[in-house]
Every structure is written in structure tokens, then in C-alpha cells.
Amino acid sequence: MRNPLSDTVIKMKPSGIRKFFDVVSEMPDAISLGVGEPDFDTPWNIREEGIYSLERGRTFYTSNAGLMELRTEICNYTERRFGMTYDPKTETIVTVGGSEGIDMALRAMLNPGDEVIIPEPCYVSYVPCVELAGGVPVTISLKNENEFRLTAQELEDAITDKTKILCLSFPNNPTGAIMEKEDLEAIAEVVLRHDLIVISDEIYAELTYSGKHVSIASLPKMKERTIVINGFSKAFAMTGWRLGYALGPAMIIEQMTKIHQFAIMCAPTTSQYAAVVALRDCDKDVEQMRQSYDQRRRYLLNEFKEMDMPCFEPKGAFYMFPCIKKFGMSSEEFATKLLKSKKLAVVPGDAFGQCGEGFLRISYAYSLDELKEAIGRIKEFIKE
Hints:
The protein is of the alpha/beta class and 384 residues long. It is built from 13 helices and twelve strands. The protein has helices at 7-11, 16-24, 44-55, 68-82, 97-109, 126-132, 152-158, 181-193, 250-263, 269-281, 283-306, 331-342, 368-383; strands at 31-32, 92-95, 115-120, 136-141, 163-169, 197-201, 226-231, 244-247, 319-320, 344-345, 347-348, 360-363. Strand 3, helix 6 (126-132) and strand 4 (136-141) form a beta-alpha-beta unit.
């Protein structure tokens, strides 16, 4: 029998996040700080709308691009929160989570051999999605001393005549880094000079703790060359509803919709109706969750400082990225020993790119009580 498997898929490494999650799920009394999932319930009025949509029998397909009512609310929300204007008919598509939006954007734009610049550490899906779309990932190792921000010079140095796309992910998973307006303006100059396209993953936009999130698409001449990816999982605590969206130039959204049409048909209908309420009525809920995350963020920063474990201050998302190089262990070794001896799961930093070696990703999308217990176990582990 011939080999039925794709060489590209065989070469892909499994997610480093899921590895530790799968182990801890079968370990009694274990605590996991490894998964980026809000510990809050989806706000009740969102759940209620989902239930109501089922009671009314709204279990049909929507249009491929999503309910027009939802696309309109997405555009209203984007203008209200981030000052960007999009056409709900031609520049908006509802996706199955932000991840599908990233995948579709890459597949819609890449030809074999096109290069995509990916600053690391980053979300684990970018490199595999580029490879599956026939592109060539080119990674940039971001530096702790720069607060894991991408600099214009780093971008300039990575560009070749084959470069087509830059993937940006700020606020960042796993570091919690952000890019401020001045940072993005410098990046935009390079992007415009080299005629690049930007995929800007802004799923953590609402979870910014220092000032207000700025999208690179809001800068002059950048909207027409940027695909903005966002969704409901993080800000609205709607991970299991599997709903996201993409905003961008009509010619790119049209091709993304074609891919979506053949691969998915449409995003879950119940989730779409619930998301309309999320965007209209849940600003206060989002703010309450953001304040709670901020409290946890400040607690962990103080604890790491007391443990003398270097950790720059994350300004967004809900992750810490402390440095463990002084302990003389690799990230994988540290995380494995911590899990076995203290039943505490964190994610090795190199799961997010080789430059994450020497760091750990610790999610604070957990209650303060769980975080306090986890910190106690880390202190015991270090002492021993």
C-alpha cells in the first residue's frame, strides 16, 4: 500500500500546549495554568440569546459570510471601540474562531514559495498554517530586552524579494507584549516601502492594561493592506462557541469567503445570534473581566518579583512569560519536573518558537485562589 499521508503534515510537530494539558487532565489534584481559556462563564445575556435562538428553531445555515445582522454589529463595534470603518457586506466575514480566519487569509493570498514573516514567540498555529498553504515561514526572534516588541530594523533585516506577508499578534500570546502606536507607525513605514500585506491577529485587543489598543489597520494607508483577525473567545469568554471574524479589503475577503464556503459553509448559527448580543450589550461585562485579569496580573508580577524570577511586565492578554534560565534547566525540563513533582502544569516557552527557550508561559485566566495555590507549588519546587 502506498503511503497515504502528506509529507507536509507528517513534518508538523504537535502543539506543545496540548501535550501538558493532556497529561494534567488525567492527574488527580493537578492544577493547570497552561490553557488560555477564560475561567468566567459566558455572560448570561449571551447564553440566553443562544438558548432563545434554539427555542425559536434558528438551526439553519446562515449566508457563507455570516448573518448580516452580526456583520453589521461587528462593524459598529470595530468603529466604536477602535475607530475603524468597514463595510459589513464586502469587507467582513464571520469565521469559526480566529484560527480559521488566520488559515483562510494565508490560503487566500499565498502562492508556493511566498515568504511570511512571523515574529516569535507567537501563537502555535502560524507556522503550520503557512506551511499548509504552501508558503515559507520566516521567523524573527523577539527580545526580552525590547519587551518582545517587533522593531522596524528587525523587520527590515528579515525581508527578501520573496516576502509577501507579515503576521502581527499583539497583544501577544504567549508574552503579553503589546505594540503602541509609535511602534506600529515604524513597522507600517517598512510595510509600505516593501509593499507587504499584514495579517493582524487582535484577539486580545480588549485585554489591554496600559492605554487603549491600537490596530495597525487604523494607520494611514494600512487599512487597504491589512487583514484584521478578531473574535469572541477571549474578551467575551466564548471559547466553546467557536466564533471569530476577519475584516479587510473586499478583494481578499471575497476569496476568503470562497474558501470558507467550500470548507466550512458557515459559522455556527446559534453562536452568531448570541454574538450579536455580545457586541451590543456586553461592554460592562468585558470591562469587569478585564479588571479581574488585571488584578491577577499584578498579583503574579509581585510574586515573581519576590521569588527573584525575572519577568517583564505584560501589558496585554492574560499570560506571564517568566525567565527560568538561572535554574540551569531547559523549559521542557523545568515544566516536566514541575508537573511530576508538584502537579502543576505550565507550558515550556519553546512551544511558541525556539527563542522562547528559557521561559515559561503561565496563564492567569484562572481564579486568584488557584493562582495562589500554584504560586505556592512553584515556590516549593524552587526551594527543593
